[in-house]
Automatic annotation (TrEMBL):
One Pfam assignment: Amidase
Active site: K64 (charge relay system), S139 (charge relay system), S163 (acyl-ester intermediate)
Gene Ontology MF terms: ATP binding; glutaminyl-tRNA synthase (glutamine-hydrolyzing) activity; transferase activity
Ranges where the Amidase domain occurs: 21-451
Any one Gene Ontology BP term: translation
Subunit structure: Heterotrimer of A, B and C subunits.
Protein name in UniProt: Glutamyl-tRNA(Gln) amidotransferase subunit A
Its EC number(s): 6.3.5.7
InterPro entries in the record: Amidase (IPR000120), Amidase_CS (IPR020556), Amidase_dom (IPR023631), AS_sf (IPR036928), GatA (IPR004412)
Catalysed reactions, semicolon-separated: L-glutamyl-tRNA(Gln) + L-glutamine + ATP + H2O = L-glutaminyl-tRNA(Gln) + L-glutamate + ADP + phosphate + H(+)
Function text: Allows the formation of correctly charged Gln-tRNA(Gln) through the transamidation of misacylated Glu-tRNA(Gln) in organisms which lack glutaminyl-tRNA synthetase. The reaction takes place in the presence of glutamine and ATP through an activated gamma-phospho-Glu-tRNA(Gln).
Amino acid sequence: MNEFQLTAGEIKKEDTGRERLTSSLLERINAVEDKIKAYVIKPAPAASAKKNSGLLGAIPVSIKDNICVKDEATTCASKILGGFKPPYDAEVISRLKESGAILWGKTNMDEFAFGSSTENSFYGATSNPHNLNYVPGGSSGGSAAAVAADETIISIGSDTGGSIRQPASFCGVVGLKPTYGRVSRYGLIAFASSLDQIGPITKNVEDSALTLNVISGYDPKDSTSADIAKPDFIKALGKDIKGLKAGLPKEYFTSGIDPQVKKSLDEAISVLKAKGVEFIPISLPHTEYAVAVYYIIATAEASSNLARFDGVQYGYRQINKEGIIGMYRATRGNGFGQEAKRRVILGTYVLSSGYYDAYYLRALKVRTLIKKDFDDAFKEIDCVITPTSPTAAFRKGEKIENPLSMYLSDIYTISANLAGIPAISIPCGFTKEGLPVGLQILARPFDEETLFKTAFSYEQATNWRKVKPKL
Ligand code: GLN
């Protein structure tokens, strides 16, 4: 086995490969990156660890390019942030550095995390390592592709409506969206502040727990950070799941689901049943409103968050003859891509007087009902099991001209963000075209341990992780 194929857990256990690790990864990047295009900024050959001893000592971790790294370009895959170098580290970056991790380049994404395919990047699209004609998912598609193609050991992404879990599912890797408030958002360039959450994309469940141990915990610099006890997530691995009650929401297993995804899910359910998990049919009755509610709240918050990119404070500026207003217009007109503009227009519309009550306020009320559906369900069950996405990866170009069909592909992931609960996607099979399928597990707020023990137990009983893309 090559060093670049190892997980962080394996590297730590054996203490093998550390000397050769970065050179082996750089060779790998040289060999495959032209096909994948996972990085906006490739790792520097000189990148080296400060210490070997921390939780992620000498482990390369790539970072989605919407997370601030002091004095290093942070672009959000947008032209408008060209030339911007943050004067500070995001809290997750400080914690990663403290743990001895090697910061391993900045990964590609949909501009400002708007999208589900990583095609909305100013720097060009990323390819799915399992089939280069297919998208890697999005918006953390660069992170998921980099992990799947063994161009990094771990990657950090962000998830507002599924942007960690859906690309993890499309690329056959593990993606975790922690509970809202579990990981500090300080230094994450905001998309929709009430939904955004940073989390790990990894090759296996153990590395996910290990990374969450490093990046989670209270941070007074983020006013929504939760000041609650942080368990050692590694201890959840290997715990018995016999007697665990899992809900199967009928709204997620409807005609919209691809038969091959359904088949993989059914097989995964049998594996978990054999481990003693009890499956209970449940209903989450407001699921049908989730996509509409999400695209009102997310665009409203995005339009407000993007107002700061005006050509004065950050990055790119376009001057013209029409004074300061002309400069704002030219900067934003040339600096934002199509999808960013669409979201600013939509978000401004739903927040404008006369429409606020009809759209934004109503969406907030339905969001409360969606959260209540989960609260009610979790009185009877310990976790919910669903597919991560109704289909496996789609072809490049298939949905880019039709934003609505792109938005609908998030149908299974966005409820977790609206409800603020944790969710994980793990590989559970392949389609006959050789594309990965993902299984999603959702749990009560701050109960990531149930996700880890269930996911780990399933992973131990299956071999999906070992199926590598042929590159
Ligand atoms: N695909 C969703 C969107 O475009 C989710 C994005 C995300 O989670 N950042 O809004």
